[in-house]
């Protein structure tokens, strides 16, 4: 399945059950393991589990492959592995603590030409 279609299905499945703060990160240049990370927030264990299950079900219905689901026992953080896309559904406290958005965003490169004294105008 085309990655854009898979991403669209996963995001729609999250929106169906009122996920909050859905963020899609392109990780294709950062990891050979997957091309996208989707992060979403659910307000309770029940909602987090329902969001992950809905992603699973909608991808399967569309003929996509679900490699696995982890974390359903507690419902604080459920990971849905779709191969090229990894979906993280988390409760707000867990999402804030692990801050995956910062982990997967590319930091701006610092100039190698700058010398220590240049920074403060000396």
UniProtKB/TrEMBL annotation:
Originating organism: Sulfuritalea hydrogenivorans sk43H
Keyword annotations from UniProtKB, A to Z: Cytoplasm, Repressor, Translation regulation
Listed SUPFAM superfamilies: Nucleotidyltransferase
One Gene Ontology cellular component annotation held by this UniProt entry: cytoplasm
Entry similarity comment: Belongs to the Iojap/RsfS family.
Role, per record: Functions as a ribosomal silencing factor. Interacts with ribosomal protein uL14 (rplN), blocking formation of intersubunit bridge B8. Prevents association of the 30S and 50S ribosomal subunits and the formation of functional ribosomes, thus repressing translation.
Main location class: cytoplasm
Compartments reported by the entry: Cytoplasm
GO MF term list: ribosomal large subunit binding
Subunit field text: Interacts with ribosomal protein uL14 (rplN).
Source taxonomy: Bacteria, Pseudomonadati, Pseudomonadota, Betaproteobacteria, Nitrosomonadales
Gene3D superfamilies (UniProt xref): Beta Polymerase, domain 2
Entry protein name: Ribosomal silencing factor RsfS
Biological-process GO terms, alphabetical: cytosolic ribosome assembly; negative regulation of ribosome biogenesis; negative regulation of translation
InterPro entries: Iojap/RsfS/C7orf30, NT_sf
């Amino acid at each position: 399945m085309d990655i854009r279609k898979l991403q669209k299905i996963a995001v729609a499945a999250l929106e169906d059950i009122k996920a909050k703060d859905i963020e899609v990160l392109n990780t294709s240049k950062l990891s050979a393991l997957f091309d996208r990370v989707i992060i979403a927030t659910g307000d309770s264990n029940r909602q987090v589990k329902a969001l992950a299950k809905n992603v699973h079900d909608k991808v399967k219905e569309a003929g996509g492959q679900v490699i696995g689901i982890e974390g359903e026992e507690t419902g604080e953080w459920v990971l849905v592995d779709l191969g090229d896309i990894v979906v993280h559904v988390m409760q707000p406290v867990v999402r804030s603590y692990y801050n995956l958005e910062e982990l997967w965003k590319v930091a701006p490169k610092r100039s190698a030409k700058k010398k220590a004294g240049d920074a403060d105008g000396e």
